[in-house]
Specification:
The complex is a heterodimer of chains A (143) and B (381). With 143 residues, chain A is mainly β. Chain A is 4% helix and 41% strand. Chain A is globular, with a radius of gyration of 17 Å. Chain B has a single domain, classed as Thiolase/Chalcone synthase (Peroxisomal Thiolase, Chain A, domain 1, 3-Layer(aba) Sandwich), CATH 3.40.47.10. Classes of the chains: A mainly beta (143), B alpha/beta (381). The structure holds zinc ion.
Amino acid sequence: MAEEAAASGPLPVVSFLKIPDGGDPYLEGQRCGDCGAIFLGERSICSNCGVRENLKPQKLADTGVLYVYSIVHRSFPGIEVPFVSAVVDLDGGGTVKGNLINVEPTPEKVRMGMPVEVVYRIAPTKDRDGNEYLSYYFQPREK
Amino acid sequence: MSDVYIMGIDMIRFGRYPDRSVPELGAEAALLALDDAGLTIQDIEALYCGNLMQASGMIGQRILREIGQTGIPVTNSANACATGATAFREGWTAIKAGLCDLVLVVGVEQLGKVGLLGGGGGGKGISKEGLLGSGTMPCVFAEAGMEHARKHGTTFEQFAKVSVKNHAHSVKNSKSMYQKETPLEMVMNAEMIAYPNTKLMCSVNVDGAAAAVLASEKKARELGLGRAVRVAASILTSDPFTERDLVMPDVNTCTRQAASKAYEMAGLGPQDLDLVELHDCFATAEILHYENLGLCADGEAGKMIDEGESAHGGRIPVNVSGGLLSKGHPLGATGVANLYEVSTHLRGEAGSRQVEGAKVGLTHVIGLGSACGIHILEKVG
Ligand SMILES: [Zn+2]
């Protein structure tokens, strides 16, 4: 089983990262047709307005702005630090959290409101069965 | 519906008690509160116990095994960092409902070996920590603080001043885990955990217990109102849906909603408060809650800490106990301990840290997930 999965390419790190056959990966939200709230991951009921069965998948943008961040210097054992934990508002809706890369992890270099883009890379760790995972990251975007 | 009064309340000194069990710590606080009320376990009609880490362990019943198995109903509550306040509110509800005249509330926690980062881990596939940002508590509250910085220009130094203040307050509290001043340079130069929270800007994980005896108005009059404290408001909220809540726990909205309901229930406003014990789990959080609780206008929290308005002797003293940052944060006990602090001032029994002439005080806790508990207490005599 593990070998089959590994052979067919990386697995998505989270359920809302989609890897189409022969296409580019993207992040997918679920938009409520009644109130417009956007969720990450499959669901059938909107927790904002309570409406059922009116959530539709929506491809999220690969560009956005850095809403807030923290520079993490201490994490759980085995996690490489420092890194920038970033909350990004994607253009057109949806807020996603991830690592901000390709920027020096200092408050002088990381600026709230800076334009960022979503990039996709193979995660540095594999799971117990040897499967590779595709993850998403943010990096600064030239305006 | 009957008013509810605190007739007895106390806490053990917060610290590390590796050789004692959770029920033992809870029992000690329970006896202190009963003694404070001049009552015994035989007088109590129900027990409400708050404990988080051993939520399935029937802690309330095991406390009764220590101090008296009278067969009364016991309810064990778990509600993250709002666990103690939730147990207290359950007791308040029983009296409000007219089911009981005297109840005991105990909040207890043993955290000794838990690191300062909090939960984490779990989930399918590979670990998301350090890959999709960080889910550690210092980071979650750092990001919440940075939202305030983004909106209002709050600085690292202003956040750090919260920790300086609360550590200074704790010097006069013999029940605090730490009783040491930490000057600004020391706080800012301490190990950075998650910018802008340094190690000295993170609450201390400790063991602790606190307990309260609550009475109906009828029973309170019978026992004597001399040192009684009236519970003017008891509110619990959960987090409503907000825009970024999926990836960034929103500690503001549920606090604001709880505060507005609490002021309405008490028929009071923030201008009537003489002291506040709020949930400073991280220094960044205290800044947010000045505004969430209406202690200052939106955007003024940085100025409030700069001008010493929330320090002892200031316009509205906040966390004169030393707060979670110095007194310590034993999750299930925290919410009862802050009720103890405010009650002690309203009774005029806070000794060298007494807020002079205190008549009304507010307590606030928030547990991620989320639960916000607010109580407003009023001096009776
Ligand atoms: Zn909806």
